[in-house]
Specification:
The chain has 118 residues and is of the alpha+beta class. The protein contains 3 helices and 4 strands, in the order H-E-E-E-E-H-H. It has 2 domains: 38 residues; 54 residues, Nuclear Transport Factor 2, Chain: A (Roll), CATH 3.10.450. It is found in: Cell membrane; Bacterial flagellum basal body.
Amino acid sequence: MNDTSTTLSLITQVSGALAIVVLLIIFCAWLARRCGFVSHGRTQGAAIVVKSSHSLGQRERLVVIEVDGQRLLLGVTPGAITRLSRLAHPAEAQAAAAPDFQLTLRRLLKRGKAEPEQ
């Protein structure tokens, strides 16, 4: 009787430890996906890239995607996906409008040297 109780106790302990390890692995995988450490099946050279998404309600969203170098604004509902507009690339607009950081820093440093210290 003593041998079967120790064997049963050992099997219970091992299976309990195994269940805890499996649950811990599942929880860590869920946490990694939730925090964004793991991409959701996207590859580096994906043909369609979701740039941003904004929720409009429980099931409606606005999504900006990039396909073949074009940015599209899509309206997504449970029943349909509708292209609302084509968008210009923000990088092109920012490059023309944004001043060069290095040039601005040089101007500020030169201006600081020209003024007398107080």
